[in-house]
Here is the input.
Amino acid sequence: MNTVRQLTAILAFAAGAGTAGVAGTDPIAWMTNETEAMEMSLKTNRPVFMFFTGSDWCVWSQKMEDEIFNTPEFARYAEDHLVLLKLAFPRSYQLPESQIKHNRALQKKYDISGYPAIVVTDSQGRIIGRLSYRDGGPQPFLGELSKMIE
Here is the structure.
């Protein structure tokens, strides 16, 4: 019996290790500079997806990252359709002063009053639409986003 338990444990571990690479795909690359994001948007003809986040303190921002942005489905969609721009407003660590000013200016420009907030723009910064946290994982979120940018 002890051998069966050991074998079961080894198989369970191996199965988990085999799927870790699938679930833990390379993290998506977020830009942090609006000018660079707009330039990339112009080059690629993709909208800019601005994620305003209370990254280290806002439960809903963290849920959005965990349940939607950190999924293979979102990563694949973003790679083909979006320029990603993350604008963090942390409390437990300090961003460089220039980044704080940059993020606050965009917060004001796009009238952001709470987190998480998504603003999707064209390459000129004109708003295409807005989103926030949606329950249900990446599929409902991506469905709404797809309708918005098509």
